[in-house]
Design a protein that fits this description.
mainly beta; 10 strands; 0% helix; 49% strand
């Protein structure tokens, strides 16, 4: 049974950092593109970044840095200079091969980890 489990969310002050993890079981992440999405209050779900099966990260977001650890079969999202508007639930997804942006076309989804940015 394939599972993606997010962890590392919590409460952080504005300007702070958090490192989220997405740990996979039942599949090997070196065959999958892994993306991070977030659902923030009052907004539509937003794709943040992705790392593909070759390990090439999406450089779109300079505050959010994605990386992977194939030994632990885990993808990380380092989030820096956090702002209150970053508050939300963060999800990881996996799809075979290269990165895609459509949430509905992913092969697997995690249940999410909540992040609150507040003083």
């Amino acid at each position: 049974q394939v599972q993606l489990v997010e962890s590392g969310g919590g409460l952080v002050q504005p300007g702070g950092s958090l490192k989220l993890s997405c740990t996979a079981s039942g599949l090997s992440l070196d065959y999958y593109g892994v993306s991070w999405f977030r659902q923030t209050p009052g907004k539509e779900r937003e794709g943040l970044t992705c790392i593909d099966e070759r390990g090439y990260p999406d450089p779109r977001k300079d505050r959010f840095i994605i990386s992977r650890d194939l030994v632990r079969n885990t993808v990380h999202l380092q989030m820096n200079s956090l702002r209150p508007e970053d508050t939300g639930v963060y999800f990881c997804t996996a799809v075979a091969g290269l990165c895609i942006t459509n949430w509905n076309n992913m092969d697997y989804w995690g249940k999410g980890t909540p992040v609150t940015v507040s003083s």
